[in-house]
Amino acid sequence: MNADILKMPVTQLKGISSTRAKLFAKLEIYTVYDLLNFFPRMYVNRGEIREVLDFSGEGKALFALEVTKPLVSARIKSKKTGRAMTVQRFSAADNTGTVKITFFNSEFLKNTFITGRKFLFYGELERTARGISMTSPEYEPYYETSGYSSIEPVYPLTSGITKKLISSCVRQALDNYKESIEDGLEADIIKRNGFMPYYEALCEVHFPSDENKLKNARKRLAFEELYNFYLKMLFLSDKSRKGRAYRVNYPDMKKFVSELPFTLTYPQKRAIQDILTDISMSSNPEESAKRKEKYAPPARRLVQGDVGSGKTVVACAALYACAKSSYQALLMAPTGILARQHYESIGKLLSKFGIRTVLLVGGMKASEKRETLSLIESGEAQIVIGTHALIEENVKFKNLALAITDEQHRFGVMQRKALEDKSEQDLKPHTVVMSATPIPRTLALIMYCDLDISIIDAMPVGRKPVKTYAVGTDMRSRVYKFIASQAEEGKQSYIVCPLAQESEETLMAGYEMKAAKEYCDSLKNTPLGKLNTVYIHGKMKQQEKDEIMERFANGDIDVLVSTTVIEVGVNNPNATVMLVENAERFGLSQLHQLRGRVGRGEDNAYCILMSPLLKKSKPDSTFAQRIDTLCKSSDGFRIAEKDLEIRGPGDFFGRRQSGEFRFRIADISSDMKLLLLAKEEAERTVSKYSNSK
Ligand code: ADP
Ligand code: MG
Q1: Which of 48, 63, 238, 571 is spaced 20 to 30 Å from 258 by Cα?
Q2: Ligand 1 atom, smallest distance to 569 CA
Q3: Which CATH architecture fits 47-149?
Q4: What is the CATH architecture assignment of 467-633?
Q5: Residues 592, 466 contacting (CB under 8 angstroms)
Q6: Ligand 1 pocket, CB under 6 A
């Protein structure tokens, strides 16, 4: 599209005053370009034109009627509010019958509905003894010669802006700027894929002529959007890959493996091999080994594996390799408690090889922190484990070869970038991100399109699946008794509530919704009353949260009542029960994550999903079906696919990151083929571009 249109303010169009422009701004429409790219949210098929006499169906239908009696306006008092209002009535007819049509507070319509004019009306017919009538139908002028479209776009509107206004402004823009609306896709891409020309596609999405053309128009525009997205990402990642990283020697893994208390699973071995190959490579592995090359292209890899699939040991192997080559490596975790757990388990293992590991988290004593920082700077600390504190500017490394982030989805892309700046001079560390949130392949293609992916898709042997039950709230006292009996055996439990504290939202919901604080208080008079119950929620200070989690991990707390803060991978093998209240408020993937908190030890573990929708007295079939997937399957990827189907992509990206992946027309949850096509074409373009340089 021509650059001028991009910038032309919408006030250039007839009918958009500066006051109206403010309303348009609410829809993020500032320029003519924005307007043309303000796509309908959905379409309604109004069906064929019906005849008044014949039509006997329910709901709205489309009629072509000629005004037969002029519009009369009258003042009345509203029955509901008692306020004065006006009512407009007129009659219109087709060959088979007459309809009395009513509008409210619309005196201006007397200039529209003039006797003899024809309109399409879309509304619901009411038949009473006094005749046939219709109230406030949608309408548009009807010209028999030019035909009509039965497909009606529906825009995401704001008050003060009608669909009519949008349509007339879009029409104007399409007509006035036809010459300036250029096709942005290269001709050979259009030809190769048989795409509809840009201008035609724009016309079709706003004024569809038939289903098929509309489908092709949307496909073309969605393709372009995805294609541009990939181009941007590829150029970005190309830039960041241009740097150099230290080349790490491929270590002898036998020693490492012999110190493990278990045998690695096949996907664990494969993931380790992927990473080690990445970081020990140069553009020519054989040559570089001979010449002992010092640098390698920076690797960027995502390791995806379900909760409990054993990602830590994979990270550990990579850290080991770096230290063996006398380089530093870091592992960043999203919370202090998790960092500490990693520090303990990884530090212990690596110390067997004489490798020194340090911990850097928030809230350390100043002297302790100073000492740690100097160990990192001098290189004495080979492995550094910590939280966000690692990103801070005063953390300087001697020779950082690798940065691993655990539970990646908790960190933004910006933080990923900040980590990349931790190596000295022009060097970049290799980066590995580990995610426990299995995401469907379509989404992985978008979110991590600049990363290579290793998937850990098998669990360590002997792992017992967590027994999962979906129950109604009428089972609560039985569940409490069960939790109490587990506590007697020394086992611990989690109870997760959807909210931290009771609020308006709780009351608005119109049904019981549990809040962690009040819930915990209310346990006093239940079978759990005698146990040590503590609540924790996300808004507490990090240090307070860490302390509570520490106590829970040490076994001081029997029942931990919480919001979803515990979702992030804390390891407590002694916890055997996960009770989720208001399970209907969570996505399947999220429930699966929560379930992963238990069953980390030898004992049988249980996940109980409780919901008022599952009460025996009122079976809700859709929810029961949805949750059934979870009871039957422990495969995170399958569950994620199902979740995407049901809830759309928003939940996967999380609020913070979702802005980066917002698309105007492409529906990334459904169109895998188009995603792959856009990626392929973008890669083709990039390679053409870089070859010709
Ligand atoms: P996650 O992928 O959720 O980070 P962890 O790395 O915390 O999983 O591993 C979960 C548990 O499984 C840990 O106690 C770990 O020691 C154990 N584990 C990891 N790999 C294996 C294996 N191959 N065989 C048996 N147990 C394993
Ligand atoms: Mg983990």
Answers
A1: 571
A2: 3
A3: Beta Barrel (2.40)
A4: 3-Layer(aba) Sandwich (3.40)
A5: no
A6: 262-265, 268, 305, 307-313, 436, 460, 569, 571, 600
